[in-house]
Amino acid sequence: MESKTARLTLLIDPAKKEAFERLCAAQDLTPSQVVRQLIRDYLTRHGVSYVPSGARGSRATTRAPAGEGEPHPPGAARAKPRQRR
Questions:
Q1: Is the pTM of this model over 0.90?
Q2: Dihedrals φ, ψ of 16, to 5°?
Q3: What are the pLDDT digits (tens) for 41-71?
Q4: Is position 27 within any domain?
Q5: pLDDT mean over 19-40
Q6: Assigned domain for 25 exists
Q7: Burial state string for 49-67 with b = 16 or more CB within 10 A and e = fewer than 16
Q8: Residue 12 burial (C-beta neighbours within 10 Å; 0-12, 13-18, 19+)
Q9: Any residues with CB less than 8 A from the CB of 8 and at least 6 apart, and which?
Q10: Which of 3, 11, 28, 52 has the smallest CB count inside 10 Å?
Q11: Is residue 63 part of a domain?
């Protein structure tokens, strides 16, 4: 499990933000879950390796072979849904 300790701040058009939040809610996902998945996919697509911050003592890295990693169509984020309690 990744440690969620870093914050990313970005500027976005208010109408786009609202549409994004509505879509996330309709898919029972938080905007943060979707953005984290988009970042993981982007890193993989570009062959960037990293060790998740929660992988203590692990030597596992994430790396896509050169040329692999297809972009997803708009709205096709594959974030895992939240579990309800």
A1: no
A2: -65, -40
A3: 999 999 999 888 877 665 545 554 444 444 4
A4: yes
A5: 97
A6: yes
A7: eeeeeeeeeeeeeeeeeee
A8: exposed
A9: 35
A10: 11
A11: no
Q: How far is CA 36 from the centre of its chain?
A: 2
Paired tokens of 66? 């050169």
Of the candidates 72, 63, 5, the one whose C-alpha atom is nearest the C-alpha of residue 34 is 72
Question: Alpha helices, DSSP H only, in 1-85?
Answer: 14-26, 31-45
Angle of helix 14-26 relative to helix 31-45, nearest 10 degrees?
Answer: 100
DSSP 45-68: HTT-----TT-TT------PPTT-
**Looking at the 3D structure of the chain, how many domains does it have?**
1
Please report whether residue 3 resides in a domain. no
Range of the domain at 85: 14-51+78-85
Tokens of 44: 């993989």
